[in-house]
């Protein structure tokens, strides 16, 4: 094989196979675990999430929340790898189809604004405690109540754009 064909082969493999699987990411007081990360031909990164909705109708109902989740992954991936993330996709495992999403800078800023809004709401205090020890004892989120109370992460986020534009102060 020539050097050029080896290079083309390496490039094709890097686009077809993920370079990371179930990558845990954390930044901006956001934690996520993206299922697969691919390198695109233009050098950017593509996040992929696997979903197992029972029907395509279920996936349609959740389309907005899927885009928010993928956009959060995009923000985290840009921070981790210092490469742009302009698109992401969902692989629906029931029928092996993809849904592609364009991720804009505006989308990324909005996700960070949403995160700051949620932190601000939480800073105002927890919702009323359920006065039913039996419900709390068996609640799968019982440890989260304590964590939310202990973590007072309410500092607004600064999004650092990778395309050379100005920094954006969120909050």
Overview of this protein structure:
The chain is an alpha+beta fold. It is 42% helix and 24% strand. Strand 2 and strand 3 form a beta hairpin.
Write out key terms for the chains shown.
171 residues; alpha+beta; 5-stranded mixed beta sheet; two-stranded antiparallel sheet; 6 helices; 7 strands; 42% helix; disordered C terminus
Please write out the topology:
Blueprint: H1 3-16, E1 20-27, E2 30-39, E3 45-51, H2 56-61, H3 63-81, E4 87-92, E5 97-102, H4 105-123, H5 133-137, H6 142-150, E6 158-159, E7 168-169
Parallel strand pairs: 3-4
Antiparallel strand pairs: 1-2, 2-3, 4-5, 6-7
Helix pairs in contact: 3-4
Overall mean pLDDT: 79
**Largest sheet composition:** 5 strands, mixed
The arrangement of helices and strands along the chain is HEEEHHEEHHHEE
**Oligomeric category:** single chain
Number of helices: 6
End-to-end Cα distance? 54 Å
Helix content: 40-55%
Broad shape = elongated
**Which structural category fits the helices and strands?**
alpha+beta
Q: What's the β-strand tally? A: 7
The percent range for strand residues is 15-25%
Short summary of the structure?
The chain is 42% helix and 24% strand.
């Amino acid at each position: 094989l020539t050097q050029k064909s080896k290079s083309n082969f390496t490039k094709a493999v890097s686009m077809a196979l993920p370079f990371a699987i179930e990558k845990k990411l954390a930044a901006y007081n956001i934690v996520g675990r993206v299922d697969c990360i691919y390198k695109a031909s233009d050098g950017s990164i593509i996040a992929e999430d696997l979903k197992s909705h029972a029907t395509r109708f279920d996936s349609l109902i959740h389309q907005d929340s899927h885009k928010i989740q993928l956009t959060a992954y995009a923000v985290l991936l840009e921070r981790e790898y210092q490469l742009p993330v302009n698109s992401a996709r969902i692989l629906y495992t029931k029928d092996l189809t993809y849904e592609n999403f364009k991720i804009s800078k505006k989308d990324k800023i909005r996700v960070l604004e949403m995160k700051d809004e949620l932190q601000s709401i939480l800073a105002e205090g927890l919702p009323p405690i359920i006065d039913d020890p039996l419900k709390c004892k068996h609640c799968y989120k019982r440890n989260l109540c304590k964590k939310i109370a202990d973590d007072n992460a309410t500092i607004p986020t600064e999004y650092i754009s990778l395309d050379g534009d100005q920094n954006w102060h969120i909050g």
